[in-house]
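Subject: Interface between my chains keeps coming out wrong

I've been trying for a while to get a sensible model of this assembly. When I model each chain on its own everything looks fine, but I need the whole thing in one frame so I can look at the contacts. Pasting all components below, labels as-is. Any help appreciated, I'm running out of ideas.
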Amino acid sequence: MATYLEFIQQNEERDGVRFSWNVWPSSRLEATRMVVPLACLLTPLKERLDLPPVQYEPVLCSRPTCKAVLNPLCQVDFRAKLWACNFCFQRNQFPPAYAGISEVNQPAELMPQFSTIEYIVQRGPQTPLIFLYVVDTCLEEEDLQALKESLQMSLSLLPADALVGLITFGRMVQVHELSCEGISKSYVFRGTKDLTAKQIQDMLGLSRPAVPIQPGRPLQTPEQPVISSRFLQPVHKIDMNLTDLLGELQRDPWPVTQPLRSTGVALSIAVGLLEGTFPNTGARIMLFTGGPPTQGPGMVVGDELKTPIRSWHDIEKDNARFMKKATKHYEALANRTAANGHCIDIYACALDQTGLLEMKCCANLTGGHMVMGDSFNTSLFKQTFQRVFNKGFNGEFRMAFGASLDVKTSRELKIAGAIGPCISLNAKGPCVSENELGIGGTSQWKICSLDPTTTLAIYFEVVNQHNAPIPQGGRGAVQFVTQYQHSSTQKRIRVTTIARNWADAQSQLQHIEAAFDQEAAAVLMARLGVYRAESEEGPDVLRWLDRQLIRLCQKFGQYNKDDPNSFRLSESFSLYPQFMFHLRRSPFLQVFNNSPDESSYYRHHFARQDLTQSLIMIQPILYAYSFHGPPEPVLLDSSSILPDRILLMDTFFQIVIYLGETIAQWQKAGYQDMPEYENFKHLLQAPLDDAQEILQTRFPMPRYIHTEHGGSQARFLLSKVNPSQTHNNLYAWGQVSREELL
Amino acid sequence: MTCSLFFVSAKFQGPPPPSNTGPSYPPYSHQLQPAYPNTASTAPAAQLANQLNSMQINSYVSCSGPGTTPSPRMSSGHPASFQGPQSPPPTQQQMALPPGSQIPPPGNNINGPCAQPSLPPMARQDGTPGPVPPNPNLQQLSGQPPGPGYHPQQANYGPQMAGSQLSYPGAFPGGPAQLSGPQQKKLDPDSIPSPIQVIENDKASRGGQVYATNTRGQVPPLVTTDCVIQDQGHASPRYIRCTTYCFPSSSDMAKQARVPLAAVIQPFATVLPNETPLYVVNHGETGPIRCNRCKAYMCPFMQFIEGGRRYQCGFCSCINDVPPFFFQHLDHIGRRIDHYERPELSLGSYEYVATLDYCRNNKPPKPPAYIFMIDVSYRNINSGLVKLICDELKTLLDKLPREEQEEASAIRVGFVTYNKVLHFFNVKSSLAQPQMMVVSDVGEVFVPLLDGFLVNFQESRSIINNLLDQIPEMFAETNESETIFAPVIQAGMEALKAAECAGKLFIFHSSLPTAEAPGKLRNRDDKKLLNTDKEKTLFQPQVNFYEALARDCVANGCCVDLFLFPNQYVDVASMGLVTMYTGGTLYKYNNFQVDADSPQFLSDLRRDIEKKTGFDAIMRVRTSTGFRATDFFGAIYMNNTTDVEMAAIDCDKAVTVEFKHDDKLSEDNGALIQCAVLYTSISGQRRLRVHNIGLNCSSQLADIYKSCETDALINFFAKSAFKAILSQPLKVVREILVNQTAHMLACYRKNCASPSAVSQLILPDAMKVLPVYMNCLLKSCVLVGRPEIPTDERAFHRQLVTSMGVADTQVFFYPQLLPIHSLDLKNDAVPAAVRCSEERLSEGGAFLLANGLSLFLWLGVSTPPELIQGLFNVPSFAHISTEAMSLPDLDNPFAKKFKSILKHIQSQRPYTMKLMIVKQREQPEMLFRQFLVEDKSIYGGASYVDFLCCVHKEICQLLS
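Reply #2:
Try treating it as a single job with all components included. I did that and got this:
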């Protein structure tokens, strides 16, 4: 089994791909009996230090319906300079540049270690990255000040040639012109009126009407860049200007009881502005909002203070009167944004809800970030925001834009759908399945913004009929072609081609079983569950999950009827039920005690993080620190809470440090300050250091909670652990070794 | 009996002649029988021709009434008038023929067979000092002998008339050549009543004196007469002038006379520095004292009774308790002891401080705001206008009006520029630089900012100056040529609304607003509509939007002053509508050139900004029982029939109010009028301005006629006619005017004048110049549809006149023509005017003509070189350049005197006039000639003489 684990790990490292099954059942019927669908988690831009991009264009299969990229799995006839596509078996001539090809002189893409390869292509003009700040001015003075500082700081983090723009909103929406001297100029829009993109462009003077040439008047030479750059300027040119402008931002001055926040119109204008000026180039609309939209299209709550914002209870009772309309508004915006290849980030900082439920699609469909905090004046926001502009190992921004993911499969497979921060490109083709899982009906998706950890779940369907067996040793192949705009504004294409063995489920079930990747399967199933939860009732989803689990156990478990204790699962399945147990309790499927905004926030992150992070989200990690040995992961169980332990829990969204009863007493007694108890000081310090490490790397920055036995914040820990000590523990199979937890 | 032509006026038709179907005086509600002009039939022309020719036989009949004799000064001034009759050559038409008995050949319209080569004798007696003796108090006693037959003021004229041009209106086929052609066939103009004479007479008798308003129903001096007015219980004529100061006591009588009963109220009129400004009465929280029933304000017409504990309202006769704090004992004549200490008891005009009950939403008003809204489209930038405005505003804003006792003006200012979109400016004093906020959603315009838009100029001076410096540069590269208009007004209004204050918008605009926005206009000027039933549409707004906008503006106390700089048709009728309804002022500078026209514009702007204005005003005219105000004309808006709403009212705006009888009026009580204007002052104080005037009532028609004021009549006629053209064809309106003139005069002739031949034209003294003024009104371009006259000009004039006071209409319709070749350099006085006729010009003379809008310096071909040298600093006539826009600044007595005259003329007029230099026999003279209103107009207007003939004919017909 170790080989399969290694295989899986190796594959993940090389290709950024984790399949639920690494040996594929060879017929449709068998595949459906496997319960967990054949699917994979794909991290298209997985950071590969050892992968220098090649500086030429990929070679494509000449069949118009295929266009697969030449890859190591292709059969090559070096003499005839021909290659056979491994997906459609089309024989293709090598392009002239490959004339010198031979067994000893092979291009990189033919070498087996380049199953993933990245091409840099020179196509079209390069346009700088665009950052459009959309800033809520209905903030408390303190918050606004903090936000202004963060924004000013961010200017220094942007690429020097990036274009920046600023839209502020409150009761009105102001689009600031950045190129003016001596006077600051902005275009103002009513916050209550929805405008079409055309109207917005007309009003901003971006459209180019056929100006009748008037005699006696100097003819204006058409200057496209000048027009569009009124609102979007290179940061190096106007950073002083913009810093001042941000500095002068005032709170929305209109006398109101509840701030009038025209978020819907502000976003609509931001989308319209970019749509008109820079379609299909990398652009981030960054929305900073300190409360729910309260007027105009997309309003989430009325401006009367007496009406609170909707809760899950209201939604269930169909009592959220603005929700549907607002959602529709933001969905329309999100779809337009995605169609333009731009993305929307939402940075929402408020103590109450801000309408993320309605606005979530803006980030979800465009690959934008969603950050939720209590205030702009917290390090959570400040550092998270700073991390948006983090650079990777080679000094490049960890962001990419306007990607399209094209999936090609060999003919035994079809594509059922994808779940992740993407939208369908509606590319129908022979390899598209009729059964949809997630966003289906296409073999191509658009991911407007992604970073090296962005991970999509892609679901397949085995279509090979039972009566048409695949020859022994046959392999199925999948190719992922990701075209994207690199942060350096280069156009790049990353191609990953993988192949897996087919196996007959009847004769070779043990192979298939052994090649089960339970972690990937758990995440893939969880994504399906969360995807369903967005549209279905919570209990239905849970029931579905339970049924799937039962069926899986039926299929792969060994047991004697009516004897629960006889139940055994093989090692490759052993953790899976545990994941499902925690998934059922997770905020992704349970809405109890979470606001609709929080649920949307959690689900947003779950649908885009890679496998490791997703697993943390499903089942938080618990580390124990004690004098009994080095720090160790322990069961996420109430039995792990011991008086002489310090626990560190990482739920992805929260880092909780919990001091056991005795430890807490020691700390209160001040032992850590006594030189003779320096080891206690070290013990106290160890989880802090580890927590710091996590805090430093994670995006978004987790909430950091330091508590102790009996502390009010201990609830964060207690709500996560398996409450085994208050119930009879019936789950014998749950007793797995600690090492296997990770 | 030979016939003579006399000048009498009658407003209300006498007992209707059988031929006349119009029984009463509903001015423009139905078409009267078009007795005049009747171009379809030649019979009337013949008839008049015959009459007129027969008049020549004895052209002068002295009809001077008892008690009046020509004043020596007058007769010496006009020796010609007593030269006696001149025998005309005998013709076959000497005989007076009965009307219609002879049909002359058609086509004799111009120089008909009756034309006489010889000049008629000057025969008149217009030197009578008029009905008002120097002591007005004694007027009733000594001025006139009793009796209905009394007609002392009538003058008889028997001029020989060119009785042929009867095809008035519009049938004059000749061009200018005929105008300047030989005049030998004309009647001697000196023989017909001269407005100049009337003006000079009044000046002589009443000029320079103190006129005390202590008597009910006394006729004040003419508007052209300078005198000091002392308020002694009735409002000064500067505030209120009436068409007649004696109302007929019954409505039947009113119908008979057809003299319009109207008052021209100019509530904020400027008073001379040596006249007392209005006192402000403050009753604290109690507020003004008002009659419980009719709500009239305390005024001298209230009669205190029961020892001062109660008072009887002079308007509705209701007995009211005197509020305890206001109680005062009465003296032996029943007058309160504090009579002279309280303005509300002793003065015709005074102000009250209003309480919160009189404020919008019961909140004290905020000081008003001025918003400057500048069109920055390509044209205005290119012409330099924007820079001019911005530069001027920098200094001008220091002169915002303020209350006398305050150091700085409380008025806040705001700035907007616009082309196809609106740009608002944040000029908050704390900002480092102005902020511009563009609103492009012109379909639904809104105000993008609250704080920092309207600011105190003193506080934000540096940032405003910064802004004004930048505006011309900011748009220097613009190529936007389309503009919006209605959204601009809307924006200003919304800004005022948001700031919860009243105020004024100053809009500087130059082109037809064709950009896609509400209130978008197209060029709908269509010469084909002239003289059709659809002509009226040219004076109506093109789209309904503007009326609704005007209503909103008035409701929010937003006044709109519009400065137009058109190069072509801009649809003044539509664009000016909001200005008109909101009490704003419309200025129009055709083909504006910065170098030539900026002094005029800047002076207008300066005056407009500095003007004393009342904001968010509502006016109510209350009357004593028996009559009431029925119609209102002016730059006003009315939501109901009684409340006159004005977003603002300034010193130049007058509202003409027409009254009708409800019942009989008692001669003892007279007719009392109280006009109360509730407004917000420039400092943001809510005040009530109350004007009271008492008029007499009489059952004698003669009393009415002798108390008439022609200037006010013309003001009324002009306003009502200009309103009527919105609903009726021009032709009908003109016919009604002529008809009414004839009726008024005929009624007088029939009921007041001593019996004389039917063919004699007899004019009451007070209406002596009514025909000439009426003719001027009929010739005004508004009432003349000719393709040569731009529609915009007509709409512009229509709008101006609608809000004019009596003094302005007087000079507007009958321009001042001053000879300046014979200036008396030692005397400060402005030379006496001459009549507006070409005959008064001389080749060797130079004349200055002013009508309140235009100003001409006409130079005869043989103007003395020394005069030319003195004025122009060039040696001869030929060297004078008419291109010159202003006279050189010369330091010689002549030039100085001329400048001082110009200044004097200008000082009395609300609009700055641009001096145009016209040389005799050069092209621009055509323009000038239009203002010689006694002559035949190139646009077909009749000459004075012709019109007189027409009116006379009408009268004859009515009398027969």
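Reply #3:
Confirming on my end. The radius of gyration of chain B is 28 Å.
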